[in-house]
Amino acid sequence: MSRIEKRFAQLKAAGRGALIPYLEAFDPDRETSLALLKAMPSNGADLIEIGVPFSDPSADGPTIQKAALRGLKAGATLSGVLEMVQSFREEEDETPIILMGYLNPIDSYGAEAFCRDASACGVDGLIIVDLPVEEADFIMPHAQRYGLDIIRLIAPNTPESRLHFLTAQASGFLYYVSVTGVTGTRTASHEELAAALPRIRAVSPLPIAIGFGIRTPAQAAIAVRTGDAAVVASSLISTLEETLLDGRATARTLPSILQQLKAISEAVHQSAKSRVDGD
Amino acid sequence: MQAPAASMNSLKNGPDDRGRFGTFGGQFVAETLMPLVQALDATYQAAKKDPTFWEELHYYFKHYIGRPSPLWHAKRLSDELGGARIYLKREELNHTGSHKLNNVMGQILLARRMGKTRIVAETGAGQHGVATATVCALFGMSCTIYMGATDVARQKPNVFRMKLLGAEVRPVTAGAGTLKDAMNEAMRDWVAHVADTYFLVGTVAGPHPYPAMVRDFQAVIGIETKEQILEAEGRLPDVIVAAIGGGSNAMGIFHPFLDDKDVRLVGVEAAGRGLDSGETAASISRGRSGVLHGNRTYLLQDEDGQILEAHSISAGLDYPGIGPEHAWLHEVGRAEYVSVTDVQALEAFQLLTRTEGIISALECAHGLAYVAQIAPHMSEKDIIVLNLSGRGDKDIDTVAHHLGTKL
């Protein structure tokens, strides 16, 4: 059983929704982001999404764009990100790690070599923003061989006919991009989510994570009331950004993000409990 | 008038049903955009087979753009260089001053067919932005143009023209503030406004069907050239030369000649300060295969797959990629890709002005610089056609600056 599968099974048994915080690798430097990564599980992260910095993140909003730029300035490379995951895995073997990024750095590394190395370093899943299912054969055979889940994205404007196609060979979990737009902008309402999720549930038994525009504990709580997991990215990065001095981490950086992470995770876990109680 | 015809065993058949030219092209976009590019593909495939679509486009080509554009025998230029007979396909005489309007007119008619009310576009030098703003004015559509902040600063007249035409120009400060960054921002806008917005791509790049569609709209250049040169000389040219940024003017003139094996097709990339200076825009000469902006093609990138900023004296050429069909034509060896530097382009710019009384865009001056290299080594019987894709009004400030004159 993969780490992702195991984690969702545990959460389901406990009647809890999952919180998936996001961090941009090497933002603002390698040490800080590795320390943040290591501290996330004990502060409420159930799974962790790591952004791989790319020069041209065309589906990301300004917050993640800037984070990616800081990461690149700090020397982020794809192999550097894999080494980060490896360091994390030396101490922690339970929390699933999902890398999120764009295709070109992976293409440059080589799809097969990348899947082999990512798996060896302890990566569990990949979200490749600009790799739709139509082009997935680029990586699918290698991902399957090395036991990596390719997380499928579903958008509000994904047509019914396409839903079947998208979920047919999906594994791990499904990622519902809850608003049409870039990261960190508008937030989907409970009503919108309540209308959208059954459509997806009808075609796939996989857990559904909801992302894009989830900023507050309350919004994260709403997301796990309808979905199975909430992804929080831009709002954590904004917190990080506010603590920087001349682009460098300060003593406030880690505590501020972790405090926010804790608050969101409490809301997520409370909300899920009330669902079990028959809310 | 119809879409360019293709037949069995023709180099004109691409792309395949996955939108690929060999290993290049494809549809590498976020899931939110997939329904849009698929809808666009379906609309275009239907329009392509609909004679009324081409009749309508031809009407605007003739009465609004001013087609056909002349094929001018540049005698004084030919004499000055000595050697081959040089013809100029005068796309700079189109309304708005470049070949860009051919494509833009085709796409705006499609956007109308799809019921879209808002247009977004990216622009480098501003030629595509001006063309887009023009058709939006003509058809009463809302228009937002993304332009790198660096380009906004160096292309002021075009920025002003776009605003006069009713477009909103949004400067992009991300990255180096040039065309690649404007492209990213236009894609972000499109993702955020999928319901009413049409993304009007300016070159033969982007996710399928853009590379094929833009080529088909620009192929009018090559179709006319073929007729005109047969009328003037009774035979096809020996060499066709065109400057390459994304490569739409080159693809437009090359495509109808792809199966004419004896016609050499030469794309001229911008070497910038030199191919090995680190400040270049020559993505075929100095790039390698990768994925950006929805397609697989040759890209300027570092070892880790991060995209590099391109440099050229011409804002219209400093894009780190090239259309996927060019990448394929390069790989199969049907077209040749060479490069000339900023300095060589500046010299050619002045040569054309002096000999023919034509102030060309800096983009086409790159093509001319290559023509000036090969023409003297050819005979008087040989024919070269240069696609003169745009006029140079927009570049006057840049040229003056480099020649040490203050306007």
From TrEMBL, chain A:
Tetramer of two alpha and two beta chains. The alpha subunit is responsible for the aldol cleavage of indoleglycerol phosphate to indole and glyceraldehyde 3-phosphate. Pathway: Amino-acid biosynthesis; L-tryptophan biosynthesis; L-tryptophan from chorismate: step 5/5. It comes from the Bacteria. Coiled coil: none annotated. Its EC number is 4.2.1.20. This is Tryptophan synthase alpha chain. Pfam families: Trp_syntA.
TrEMBL record, chain B:
Keywords: Amino-acid biosynthesis, Aromatic amino acid biosynthesis, Lyase, Pyridoxal phosphate, Tryptophan biosynthesis. This is Tryptophan synthase beta chain. The modification N6-(pyridoxal phosphate)lysine is found at K100. Residues 66-390 form the Tryptophan synthase beta chain-like PALP domain. It catalyses: (1S,2R)-1-C-(indol-3-yl)glycerol 3-phosphate + L-serine = D-glyceraldehyde 3-phosphate + L-tryptophan + H2O. Its EC number is 4.2.1.20. Its cofactor is pyridoxal 5'-phosphate. HAMAP family: Trp_synth_beta. Gene3D superfamilies: 3.40.50.1100. Pathway: Amino-acid biosynthesis; L-tryptophan biosynthesis; L-tryptophan from chorismate: step 5/5. Pfam families: PALP. Belongs to the TrpB family. Tetramer of two alpha and two beta chains.
